[in-house]
Design goal:
It comes from Chunga burmeisteri. The chain is built from four helices and seven strands, in the order βββαββαββαα. The protein is of the alpha+beta class. Helix 2 packs across helix 4 and helix 3 crosses helix 4.
Length: about 190
């Protein structure tokens, strides 16, 4: 079984796997439209994490993990709790295209997608509003800023050919807010 990750799974799968491949799926765009009140936020300040939006001309880069034998049941049980129960994601099968030049046919992979029907779905917002929400959100897996920056770094270093304007625009908005936030906090401490 192959499992495709496009958010925190790219750097922290949390389950044992046999192999992994960097690549992409077609027909979807990555969006920070899912709320998170457990891993990267709280009930009071929900974080923003990614989901996939159907988009026929787009492709989303990430990592596919191959799980075999006893790994299958353990990984699916873990991901069901992490993504479905705590995250509000549904599963779907997609065609994964490995980055490798000698790759043959696409691989059928399982992916978790949060739909507008789940209670944590936040939907669209401006890049600046999403960045502002990410700055103030933290959950049991860490700060929401870490989630955004690690995902942007992964895309930059492992998928340099990928275009993800949404992701990099939010990263840019966050970076433009942070010096102001630092300056404001420093000023408050002096008074």
């Amino acid at each position: 079984v192959w499992i495709f990750g496009y958010g925190s799974l790219v750097w922290r799968p949390g389950f044992e796997f046999t192999s992994r491949k960097v690549g992409f799926i077609r027909g979807y765009s990555r969006r920070f439209w899912q709320g998170d009140t457990f891993h990267r936020g709280s009930e009071r300040t929900p974080g923003r994490v990614v989901t996939l939006l159907e988009d026929c001309g787009a492709c989303t880069w990430g990592v596919a993990y191959e799980v075999c034998g006893e790994q299958i049941a353990a990984s699916l049980q873990y991901l069901n709790m992490r993504e479905a129960v705590l995250g509000g994601y549904d599963t779907k099968l997609v065609k994964f295209h490995p980055q490798e030049k000698d790759a043959e046919e696409p691989i059928l992979a399982l992916v978790y997608i949060a739909t507008p029907q789940n209670p944590s779905y936040l939907g669209p917002a401006s890049e600046e509003d999403i960045a502002a929400q990410i700055i103030v959100s933290s959950g049991c897996a860490g700060h929401n800023i870490e989630y955004l920056l690690r995902l942007a770094d992964f895309m930059r270093y492992f998928c340099p050919q990928a275009e993800d304007k949404h992701l990099f625009s939010i990263e840019e908005a966050l970076i433009s807010i942070l010096p102001w936030l630092y300056y404001t906090e420093e000023s408050l401490e002096e008074t």
